[in-house]
Amino acid sequence: MRSTSEQELVERCRQGDETAFRELVDQYKGMVFALIVRTVTDRARAEELAQDVFLKVHKGLLYFRGESKLSTWIYRIVINALSQERPRAAALSLDDVGEGDRPQLQLGAEDRSFGDLLLKDRLQKAIERLPLQYQVLVNGHYLKGMRYEDLAEALNLPMGTVKTHLHRAKRQLRHLLETEFR
Amino acid sequence: MKNCDELEPLIEAIADGSLELPPEQLAHLASCDRCAARLERARAIEQLLSLREAAAPPANFTQNVMAQIGHEQWRTERVIDLGFNLAMAAGIFAILAGGVGLAWSLGLLTITVDFDAIAQALGGDFTGRVLSQVQTIAMAAVLLTIALALWWWAEAATD
User: Fold this and answer.
1) In chain A, whose CA is at the least distance from the CA of B12?
2) Is ipTM over 0.85?
């Protein structure tokens, strides 16, 4: 269900109000870009995809019936865009980190408990190995402002299933990283 | 070992705080190094995931999106314009053809073709006529090429 301000914004966009669409882009660009760039690590490609998402939003607003929240509808477009852009990361190894790529990070005490400065980088590579739906869940769930409900609606899954899948995704991540650390 | 296997699929739920264990499993977790290590790793992953920074879009992102939308609209309008022009041309042609056809069927118009005159025009005298106009034809060809090149350049620049 849409809030009044969201409904007004959509109506203004439909009437061809350019300022309204600019507002819409400003409102959602952070979330859209962050979600895409976490899944498609090539920043330039991520930017192209994020722009394409907003072009699709612009074209599709005429057909947006308002049965779901605008944000959910936009996330659905993001997920479709990502599923068409199959990541080639499946072929990547967790060892596929050159000397030059090694991050020089000042990690917290908890991070050091893993005893490896490469963990963050390896975690990213492990995420890239997950099935797309798990990637979207892991990448989306930890973005500020993204709720279980948004993910569930965007992925067309019940809330309980989203939670179960998220736990499975993190379990797969742990297994991938445990294998690495042996 | 049985407890370890039972606990393994629950580690992530324990790590993110969405599951509270019954006392028996809590006791096992406290005494089992293997499960404790798994939980520590799961908690470290949980923390790393929640600490990941959200990359911000470039400063000119909205501007770029609006420019692309403007360009898309321009392209759509151009296609509509082209369709309209073609439809107009087809309509005018149909009206003219209809008029001519009607006049011809009513006997108001007769069309005769003088094949002898055409044969004569295409004969020896035709080449001479073309040669005398070479300069004009070349100039027209150059102008047409320049116009096409300018059109192509303008299209490429806007794309």
Assistant:
1) A167
2) no
